[in-house]
Amino acid sequence: MKILAGNSNLPLARAIAGYLELPLTDASVRRFADEEVFVEIHENVRGEDVFVVQPTSFPANDNLMELLICIDALRRASARRITAVVPYFGYARQDRKPGPRTPISAKLVANLITEAGANRMLSVDLHAGQIQGFFDIPTDNLYAAPVMAADIQARYGEQDLMVVSPDVGGVVRARALAKRLDNAPLAIVDKRRDRPGQSEVMNIIGDVQNRACILIDDIIDSGGTLCNAAQALLDEGAASVTAYISHGVLSGGAVARVDKSALKELVITDSILPTDAAIDSEKIRILTIAPLIGEAIRRIADESSVSSLFD
Ligand code: R5P
User: Fold this and answer.
1) Is the entire prediction scored with pTM above 0.70?
2) Among positive and negative, which fits the CA dihedral 252, 255, 261, 266?
3) Residue 127 marked ligand-binding
4) How far is the CA of 166 from the centre of ligand 1 (A)?
5) What is the mean pLDDT of residues 65-79?
6) Where are the domains of the chain?
7) What is the pLDDT of residue 192?
8) Which of 79, 81, 149, 270 could form a disulfide with 74 if both were Cys (CB 3.0 to 4.6 A apart)?
9) Which band of pLDDT confidence, cut at 50, 70 and 90, is reported for residue 160?
């Protein structure tokens, strides 16, 4: 088994390789003067089971291109099996046509990864489980929930917990986390905009009075969804609001928005390389999912069960 890293999250790739007690494959993934990606693998990979670690986070297009070119290099070097390890799958939010004459970019990206030569795909908390079906190669979708649940039990286990989905679409994810927290009760934030141009009204479904609320979502991007939900929960009498989010996209002024928000804490994973602003923020804490991904890779290589990681 070999682990090859692109440039998008080298600390995570190193931590995964460390978990597996393997060195990273000796390779250079660099740029020509005009920004074209150039990959050179400096060791023999013929007949090897190779895992390419490359989340397609910001800059999404450059990181995607690196992933595709790494896969192409491995295929042409006769690797036996190539697994694209994409802890954060960029373009996942474009998983359906929101209107006429719009693309389904998540499907296009899945086609590109497959056509480049990947034999398997491994990701974490895909925006929608159905995205697995966009790949015609075996695709494992890992869940950060066990890592989050352990942290929540350790930090907030003594309090009256309530798991909250920030929108109706996230209820399945929230229910799965609540189950891991001894069947904690569930609330839902229902966002409504009665007419275009009117500001959003947040209705809370469930009694959050005096509860330590745990908001759970797959992505924090601008931070708008979470910061507004946190304020709405406090307005309804919640004792505190903490957010656990799988992928800290945190674009633009998101970190500043979180710092100023009513959130007690924002906990993200290292599926995306955190920016300096996120690392320096007193409200943001980062949990590592390197052992989770490392263990899944070990099981894929051994051909043993991956799903039993979540039993
Ligand atoms: C949307 O469906 C996702 O699950 C997140 O709720 C969304 O991407 C968060 O975006 P933002 O942080 O920009 O509100």
Assistant:
1) yes
2) positive
3) yes
4) 9
5) 98
6) 2-143+291-310, 145-288
7) 79
8) 79
9) very high
